[in-house]
Write a structure and sequence with these properties.
Structural class: alpha/beta
Helix content: 25-40%
CATH architecture of the largest domain: 3-Layer(aba) Sandwich
Largest sheet: 7 strands, mixed
Order of helices and strands: HEEEHHHEHEHHEHEHEHEEHHHEEHEEH
Number of helices: 15
Number of strands: 14
CATH topology of the largest domain: Aspartate Aminotransferase, domain 2
Radius of gyration: 22 Å
Distance between the termini: 33 Å
CATH superfamily of the largest domain: Type I PLP-dependent aspartate aminotransferase-like (Major domain)
Length: 428
């Protein structure tokens, strides 16, 4: 049986100086059951990572979908290493800013001009500021997850510290429900500056839905912003807007843009982007050259190699395999499969007297023992091999029937070697 003693001991040390012991909520102990999970990763190579205790995993989290090519991709590492010899940040812009912006404009349908940030939250918050400036309005309609900034997080259960006045300017609407968006335009006539949404999460858009959202936004004088922090450079080289053939006014990108290096981007219509000559969106590290070198290498590889095709094929294999396992063991009341093949979700429901969190805890306990790192969504990378996919499906062939047995026993918790996870803020 795998040990996580070093991870647990180091977590105690980390929590003395870092709230939750992590810089990222989704990487913290709130997401992983204590005693049966790793809490720190030492290194990664290709599709695999090694934790503080030396345990090896095939990684299907991929740093929250920011690793698209694989850990330590040789082309990206070579580009960053070469740039490191010349410098990281300078007193004037570096040519890489223009070169990467040109690549994005070449690949992304909506992109006529580009500005860079460091996190997806930077980009979405910047896009909100632009659409407000462009339209002269203040209210925002939003759907999906958009990061930590006040304008969005104030609409969620994690709104502590966000002024009420800020919360009152952003309004959620339901995905695939055009009437819920229309209701916002009716409630705030002439006041909504933009519609900000993830074009797809775990649920596929109904035929014509995304185009209808765009048409409705324009009908009411608002702009459409696609948050493509995850879908960008994953669903297709041009993102979900390329995949679904619906071009927004603006789009935001991050994560896979530079295969894990910290850079994000706002891209869109030139007349709207020109507002950034007046809107203040500026920070010292916006043009940091190592991340831009990584972005250039990543985008070049996407253009020249069948990255998206491989991700899609592997994802289709996972989806088909999971559906077969669920059906074979009569677990349809517990599990379902959804999402784009490159970002496949295994959904869990309360079932047979057990909660989602009890079931998820048992799943994570058992997958970690079998060398799989996953948080419920399978974020694929170009480095994943056929053998990696089969190892994942092999884990599910063992663990899902075990969960079915535990549920049928009437006391799933007796199968746990830890306390169950507790309900948390759900991002999607």
């Amino acid at each position: 049986m795998r040990s996580f003693e070093k991870s647990q001991a180091f977590l105690k040390r980390a929590e003395r100086v870092i709230p939750l012991g992590s810089q990222t909520f989704s990487k913290s102990r709130t997401q992983y059951p204590l005693g049966v999970s790793p809490f720190f990763i030492e290194r990664g190579q290709g599709s695999r990572v090694w934790d503080l205790d030396g345990n090896e995993y095939v990684d299907f989290i991929n740093s929250l979908a920011s690793i698209t090519l694989g850990y330590n991709d040789p082309d990206v590492t070579a580009a960053v290493t070469a740039q490191l010899q010349d410098g990281v940040i300078f007193s004037l812009p570096h040519r890489l800013e223009t070169e990467v912006a040109e690549l994005i404009c070449e690949m992304v349908p909506c992109a006529e001009m580009v500005r860079f940030g460091k996190n997806g939250s930077d980009a979405t918050a910047g896009a909100v500021r632009i659409v407000r400036a462009f339209t002269g309005r203040e209210h925002i309609a939003q759907c999906g997850y958009h990061g930590w900034q006040d304008w969005y997080i104030g609409t969620t259960a994690r709104n502590l510290g966000v002024p009420v006045s800020t919360r009152e300017l952003t309004h959620p609407f339901a995905y695939n429900d055009l009437a819920s968006l229309q209701a916002l335009f009716d409630k705030y006539p002439g006041q909504i500056a933009g519609v900000v949404m993830e074009p797809m999460g775990g649920t596929e858009p109904q035929p014509g839905y995304l185009q209808a959202v765009k048409d409705l936004a324009h009908q009411h004088g608002a702009l459409l912003v696609f948050d493509e922090t995850i879908t960008g450079f994953r669903f297709a080289n041009g993102g979900a807007q390329d995949w679904f053939k619906v071009t927004p006014d603006l789009a935001t990108f991050g994560k896979g843009l530079a295969n894990g290096y910290p850079v994000s981007a706002i891209a869109g219509r030139a007349d709207v982007m020109k507002m950034m000559e007046e809107v203040f969106f500026s920070f010292t590290f916006g043009g940091e050259a190592l991340s831009l070198a990584a972005a250039k290498a990543t985008l070049t590889k996407l253009k020249t190699q069948p990255v998206i095709n491989r991700l899609t094929q592997h994802g289709q294999t996972i989806q088909a395999g999971l559906k077969q396992i669920i059906a074979e063991h009569k677990l349809d009341d517990v599990f379902s499969v959804s999402g784009h093949p490159t970002w496949t979700f295994l959904n869990i429901k309360d079932a047979r007297g057990s909660t989602v969190f009890d079931i998820k805890t048992l799943l994570m306990q058992e997958q970690h023992q079998r060398g799989i790192l996953c948080l419920g969504a399978h974020n694929l990378s170009y480095a994943h091999s056929d053998a990696d996919i089969q190892q994942l499906l092999g884990m599910y062939r063992e663990v899902l029937p075990l969960i079915g047995k535990a549920l049928d026993s009437g006391n799933l918790r007796q199968f746990l070697r830890c306390d169950p996870l507790v309900p948390l803020f759900k991002v999607r």
